[in-house]
């Protein structure tokens, strides 16, 4: 999978911009606050329909405009596909092959991207919310049904929490409606859990291969899905997960009514990373934590390829400067020759003598981009 070209209009600090990408490695070079990350973000938004940096879509629109537009042409094994997203105060409008898409799950997955930014190095020791978001973003790209089930789960969860609050405040007394919401939550929550468990099992396989390589065969990486309900993860079916989630919710009803909140379900789950059987989040060194984060992020490349038959597009936002020489080399070895990569940096010094492919270099200055002759 490749992004052949992109056009942005009234996006962030870009009034208008059109670029094509004939090469596999594309480097955006410039000082901070010039627009490098904005351009990378526009590719992410074209793929995922939302930014990884803000939930306020007004920030994506150029200050003197009411709407922003991003369009691109992607190349797959099956042919080229035009994509387009419009962002305005009326919401988002997406198109595939110039045809408007009514459902998010019909759009996401057309262009698969992996974003690796400095904050992703905090994947291991950061908050559980960060790890849940990681799962949802990556799994949603390769499994549109998961994205639909997740949206339904979040919608029912919101309704259920609102109703629990009304019951706690004595504004409602109908427990039959709570039963209905509980059953719906268990149905969609079970589907979310089942898909996550399958995904983590596959991710662990690819991440461990990379982790062993980076650690020179000295370390084994295991990823455990930490569920808020008791699960036998080795031998379990979708129906059993839904049944267990429903029973757990019913068992915790007294506490939920008192606290006016839903305490169990996928929205409370987490990932545990173990290196040589030891929890790296708690006991690992910073080097082990960074190696784990790098292994997990790079594992997505082969995982997505195994699931879709297409390599994703890789977005590296100023992450090279955060890695030591050895980890930089492992990253470059993993991607070169097979993954189209977009990389932002303030300097080429840390890349000298490490590249085996000729890059396209784009100089970015105050929202203007100029392509340099290849080095």
Automatic annotation (TrEMBL):
Cellular location(s): Cytoplasm
Domain of life, source organism: Bacteria
GO CC entries: cytoplasm
GO molecular function: ATP binding; single-stranded DNA binding
Matches recorded under PROSITE patterns: RECF_1, RECF_2
Matching Gene3D superfamilies: P-loop containing nucleotide triphosphate hydrolases, RecF/RecN/SMC, N-terminal domain
SUPFAM superfamilies (UniProt xref): P-loop containing nucleoside triphosphate hydrolases
One GO term of the biological process aspect: DNA replication
Pfam families for the chain: SMC_N
Keywords from the UniProt entry: ATP-binding, Cytoplasm, DNA damage, DNA repair, DNA replication, DNA-binding, Nucleotide-binding, SOS response
Residues where ATP binds: 30-37
Boundaries of every RecF/RecN/SMC N-terminal domain copy: 3-354
Family of this protein: Belongs to the RecF family.
Function: The RecF protein is involved in DNA metabolism; it is required for DNA replication and normal SOS inducibility. RecF binds preferentially to single-stranded, linear DNA. It also seems to bind ATP.
Protein name, entry field: DNA replication and repair protein RecF
Annotated source species: Enterococcus caccae ATCC BAA-1240
Gene: recF
């Amino acid at each position: 999978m490749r992004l052949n070209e992109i056009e942005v209009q009234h996006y962030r600090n870009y009034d208008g911009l059109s670029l094509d990408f004939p090469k596999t490695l594309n480097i955006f070079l410039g000082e901070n606050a010039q627009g490098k990350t904005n351009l990378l973000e526009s590719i992410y938004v074209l793929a995922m329909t939302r930014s990884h940096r803000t939930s306020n879509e007004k920030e994506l629109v150029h200050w003197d405009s009411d709407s922003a537009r991003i369009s691109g042409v992607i190349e797959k094994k099956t042919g080229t596909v035009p994509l387009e997203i419009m962002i305005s105060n009326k919401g988002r409008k997406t198109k595939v092959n110039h045809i408007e898409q009514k459902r998010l799950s019909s759009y996401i997955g057309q262009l698969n991207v992996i974003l690796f930014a400095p904050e992703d190095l905090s994947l291991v020791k950061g908050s559980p919310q960060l790890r849940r978001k990681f799962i949802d973003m990556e799994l949603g790209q390769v499994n549109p049904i998961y994205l639909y089930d997740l949206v339904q789960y979040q919608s029912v969860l919101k309704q259920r929490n609102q109703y629990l609050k009304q019951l706690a405040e004595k504004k409602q007394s109908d427990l039959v409606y709570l039963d209905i919401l509980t059953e719906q939550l268990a149905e969609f929550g079970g589907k979310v859990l089942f898909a996550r468990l399958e995904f983590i099992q596959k991710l662990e396989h690819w991440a461990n291969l990379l982790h062993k390589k980076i650690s020179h065969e000295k370390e084994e990486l295991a990823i455990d899905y930490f569920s808020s309900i008791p699960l036998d993860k080795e031998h379990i079916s979708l129906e059993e997960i839904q049944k267990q989630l429903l029973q757990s919710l019913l068992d915790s009803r007294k506490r939920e009514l008192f606290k006016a909140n839903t305490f169990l379900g996928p929205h409370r789950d987490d990932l545990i990373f173990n290196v040589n059987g030891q929890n790296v989040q708690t006991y690992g060194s910073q080097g082990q934590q960074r190696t784990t984060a790098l292994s997990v992020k790079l594992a997505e490349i082969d995982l997505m390829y195994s699931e879709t038959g297409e390599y994703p597009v890789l977005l590296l936002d100023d992450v090279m400067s955060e890695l030591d020489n050895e980890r930089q080399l492992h990253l470059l070895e993993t991607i070169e020759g097979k993954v189209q990569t977009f990389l932002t940096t303030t300097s080429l010094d840390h890349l000298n003598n490490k590249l085996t492919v000729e890059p396209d270099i784009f100089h970015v200055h105050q929202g203007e981009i100029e392509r340099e002759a290849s080095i």
